[in-house]
Amino acid sequence: MDQSRSPARQARRCQTLTAPINFSLLLDGIHTQEPVAGLTHEFYKYPARFSPSFTRAVIQTFTQPGDIIYDPFMGGGTTVVEASSLGRRALGTDISSLAVFLSDVKTTVLRRSQTRAIRSWVNRITPRLNIWRPAQRARDWVEMGYQRNINSKGTWRIRKLVELALAETSSLRALEEQRFARCLVLRTAQWALDCRKHIPAVEDFRKQFYINADKMLRASSQYAHAVHQTARLHSQDRDSSRPLCLHRSAVGIEQDPAVAAYRPIKLVLTSPPYPGVHVLYHRWQVQGRRETPAPFWISSSLDGNGASYYTFGDRKAQQLESYFEKALEAFKSIAQIANRDTLVVQMIAFSEPEWQLEKYAEVMNQAGFREVRFRELANAPDGRVWRSVPNRKWYASQRGTTPSSNEVVLFHALHRPS
Fold this sequence. Notes:
Blueprint lengths: L7 H6 L1 E3 L5 H9 L20 H11 L5 E4 L6 H8 L3 E6 L2 H10 L5 H14 L13 H5 L12 H13 L6 H19 L8 H32 L10 E4 L19 E4 L13 E3 L3 E3 L1 H5 L8 H4 L10 H16 L6 E7 L3 H15 L1 E6 L10 E4 L3 E2 L5 E2 L5 E9 L4
Parallel strand pairs: 1-9, 2-3, 2-5, 3-4, 5-8
Antiparallel strand pairs: 6-7, 8-13, 9-13, 10-13, 11-12
């Protein structure tokens, strides 16, 4: 990819700044190749996940404890998890009910008694995951198509084990415990079905279920400890660290009464849908490319939307008109809850960066934002900072070095009044 192609007129709009910030920390976070890990980030493999190291570096560089951070395309919740663990107040929105479910579960601070109850539940029900036991069929979900492509000769056993496990979640008393248990089932089912050529045996599912439970409970305790420790250090109310995760679009966010308490926004930290890049946010692929909406059934989150709903438009549309229209609407609304101290940090990739990056820059400008470039970070002639993601895979035939394997980190602030 030719990273040097940046129109002169766009360059003139941008201001190259030097700020008294820790550029070393930020560069390490941008270029990290560490796998997604730590806290509750491994509860589910959400497609196109943020790097927690990058997220943490940005938050520590540009905000202070108590500041408000907003992720308008929340996805798997990396931003809200890191923000809350660092003593920041977090707001997240997403049009996917699955994303909101995951973010809520990941940022729930379980009490020790709840952790014990879940561990006891796992020990009790794991031996009961036996395909010879009658299962309570989810008739409504089946009729709506949420079990599509998981009832074949090779997959029906896993489907039944999931049904058995979900039926047992009702024996947990607290809603937080039940949602954690659903997430545990979700994680194990994803391990068993998603992008798997060979479906694991029943005994392997049971073993992985138990392993996942232990890992997730340990991670949940680690997250709770981080939240409590930060609250004590900065004399904060622990309840104030619980993020607000909303199932809605960023468009019109300025009119949402629930957001009134989350102003002013100090940092918008996000990774929007990548223009022209096919990412299957809402489905698993089973035994080849057979798509299933099963994760929505398992998490008890209604879906019913196609891929273009989550990616701002059909990736086959050559000029991506719908994508850029929706991006413009979203960032116009975001501008309404920003102020002169708000910084917008985005990590994004493009299927055809030669023209899409320029168009995206124009959209941000039309929405009311000017680009900010830090020369201490730049590693390309266009004055921006790029990172490479080796061997990237997007649920598609392409794997390895593709245009979307190169991500750029963009910084924006509101236009200064003339």
